[in-house]
Design goal:
single chain; alpha/beta; TIM Barrel; 8-stranded parallel barrel; 19% strand; globular; binds flavin mononucleotide
């Protein structure tokens, strides 16, 4: 079972991703494709240095095919020039960030209702065969879109993409107008899993028990390839160890908060994140204080 550390803007730098033992897949925070194409300094945040047993993804936001092709060309150039920073596994398109600035640009969850557009962006990203491609979505832009089943129309379109490098869709089980504290509702999961698309589920999962409660009544789990944890990893970077043992039979030792902090500080010395990352980690992570 895949265990994904969620993309968290200004948090999931290389040091934080490596700190989370037992993770199979991790993501940079969401990065603007436009910035990456136009600004050299934006590449400082593409810190995909090796992490054993972890596939690393860059998460990007765009709504333009032209940006996708320019980005791919620049990505290949940048990572070729920086051979130590060349452990990128895949590119995830963000169709989930609820920020008004993103939505105004037609990016993030504004894409969910635009099936043909998303399919075309993904196909553009697939015009190379070095990196896998995935998509992160929500249930819709708002309650109305959920009722109108926009996500299902999108999944129907994505099912037609036959390229095996298109590896999965991660679904954050909320619409973009829901607050972070409202409870998650996984009623649509069964139907989402009926599409021929590998699915990673996300939202409100802290441990194996939560995952099991969500999935135990499902009879067909063939397309359920993993789950993703965000906020719990901020509190406890060891939260992947228990599900990794139960689901993948892979044992790793637990650490004290002091050990976690020491390890993080040492990783930051290897590849120093931008200072905003340390500020945010200080704000969100009790073990750092
Ligand atoms: C501080 C913070 C930053 C986030 N930044 C991003 C981001 O850059 N891209 C993204 O797709 N989701 C982002 N998210 C959402 C998470 O990836 C995840 O979908 C959400 O927190 C739900 O999972 P959880 O209940 O396990 O936390 C962010 C969440 C938090 C708490």
């Amino acid at each position: 079972m895949e265990l994904h550390l969620a993309s968290m803007e200004n948090v999931t730098c290389w040091a934080f991703r490596k700190l989370c033992h037992g993770v199979t897949d991790s993501y940079t925070g969401m990065l603007s494709m436009n910035y990456l194409i136009r600004r050299s300094k934006a590449w400082k945040e593409v810190d995909t240095f090796p992490i054993p047993n972890q596939r690393q993804w860059i998460q990007v936001a765009t709504s333009k095919e032209k940006e996708c092709s320019e980005f791919i060309a620049r990505l290949q150039r940048e990572l070729k020039e920086d051979s130590a920073n060349n452990s990128l596994y895949g590119i995830q398109l963000n169709a989930s960030c609820p920020s008004p600035n993103i939505v105004r640009l037609g990016q993030g969850p504004a894409l969910i209702k635009r099936c043909a557009k998303v399919s075309s962006l993904i196909k553009e990203l697939l015009k190379q065969d070095k990196y896998k491609v995935s998509l992160k979505v929500r249930l819709g832009m708002n309650a109305e879109e959920v009722k109108q089943r926009k996500l299902f129309a999108l999944l129907e379109e994505l099912e037609k993409i036959s390229d095996s490098n298109f590896t999965n869709v991660a679904v954050h089980f909320k619409h973009a107008r829901e607050q972070s504290f409202t409870p998650y509702n996984y009623d649509l999961l069964k139907e989402i899993l009926s599409f021929k698309i590998p699915i990673v589920i996300n939202g409100g999962i802290k441990n194996y028990k939560d995952f099991n409660n969500i999935t135990k009544s499902l009879t067909n789990k063939k397309n359920l390839v993993g789950f993703m944890i965000g906020r719990e990893a901020l509190k406890n970077p060891d939260c992947f160890i228990e599900p990794n043992k139960i689901l993948n039979n892979h044992s790793l030792p637990f650490r004290s908060q002091a050990q976690i902090k020491l390890e993080f500080l040492s990783l930051c010395k290897e590849h120093e994140p931008k200072s905003i990352y340390l500020d945010k980690i200080k704000e969100y992570c009790p073990w750092y204080n």
